[in-house]
Amino acid sequence: MAQTTRRRTADADVVTESEISSETSTATKRPWDVVVWNDPVTPMNVVVVIFKRIFGYSNNKCTQLMLTVHHRGRAVVWTGERERAERYCVKVQVAGLQCTVEEAAS
Amino acid sequence: MTSRLFVRRRDGRIEVRLNEAGRDVVRVAVRRVVAAEHDLDDEWNATLNGPIDPSRDQDDPLLTLARQHEMNSNAELALLTIDETFLNDGEAWAWLSTLQVALRATASEHGLVSDERMSGADEAVLTEVKNLQLLLFAIADVV
């Protein structure tokens, strides 16, 4: 990406600046997933309570997410901006569940 | 039918109906979380400090510090309220979070990472796990 920028700078400065800014904003806006992983010991109702408390979802949604974790081994529980995803991940980890963030599949 | 271990009262407080043996289970688990937070060599440390973003070589130090601070605050609050008869919502949440951390750390420490491994586990470890599960199941019902 840096090489492209230098070459275009020689041709037309204005175009380069707008392209850089648009590329940067696309990169920062790329969504990130908060992923909760299954484990064989955590009671199901505990997972539901933790989702409800941290994300404020309805009982139904929390139960669905818990069942997805249980049956598929993992579930994406929130998607959005990277910094917020990381903060949510920390909250879930503090509550004792296994959780990571990853770039959302396009 | 077994009596409930935690009961939500009409005034919003949560009554703890654990006997001394039950409180001892909580006490041991909470103390272990507090100790593990302060000892990098503790076997529970891997569970307490799991990766946030595995695609990075190292997580943001501010985030890991925030996690350590929050986990420690919960464990300290649980420890402070271990002998209380009534808990408020924040205290009950601290109990639940800390017991859950202890449960998963216990399971990881003994390699209980699948249902198959669970069925072949040592009886003493299984009892420890079941006690924590029972407490968590009960407190999650009222939080």
What does the model show?
- The complex is a heterodimer of chains A (106) and B (143).
- Chain A contains 5 helices and 3 strands; from the N terminus they run ααβααβαβ.
- Chain A is of the alpha+beta class and 106 residues long.
- Chain A has a domain at 32-103: Ribosomal Protein L30, Chain: A.
- Chain A has a 3-stranded antiparallel beta sheet with strand order 2-1-3.
- Residues 1-18 of chain A have low confidence and may be disordered.
- The mean pLDDT of chain B is 94.
- With 143 residues, chain B is mainly alpha-helical.
- Chain B has a 3-stranded antiparallel beta sheet.
- The chains are: A alpha+beta (106), B mainly alpha (143).
- The A-B interface holds A 39-43, 45-46, 48-50, 53, 86-87, 89-91, 93-103 and B 50-55, 60, 63, 66-67, 70-71, 74, 93, 96-104, 106-107, 112-115, 117-118, 129, 133, 136-137, 140-141, 143.
Strand arrangement across the biggest beta sheet of chain B:
1-2-3
CATH superfamily of the domain at 32-103 in chain A: Ribosomal protein L7/L12, C-terminal domain/Adaptor protein ClpS
How large, in whole angstroms, is the Cα Rg of chain B? 16 Å
What level of helicity do the residues of chain B show?
A: 55-70%
- Amino- and carboxy-terminal Cα gap of chain A: 21 Å
Provide a count of the helices of chain A: 5
Structural class of chain B: mainly alpha
The helix-strand sequence of chain B is EEHHHEHHH
Largest sheet data of chain A = 3 strands, antiparallel
Q: Which stretches of chain A are poorly predicted, pLDDT < 50 over at least 5 residues?
A: 1-18
Please give the count of helices of chain B: 6
CATH architecture of the domain at 32-103 in chain A: 2-Layer Sandwich
Query: How does the major sheet of chain B shape up?
Result: 3 strands, antiparallel
Got a strand count of chain B? Answer: 3
SS strand fraction of chain A: 15-25%
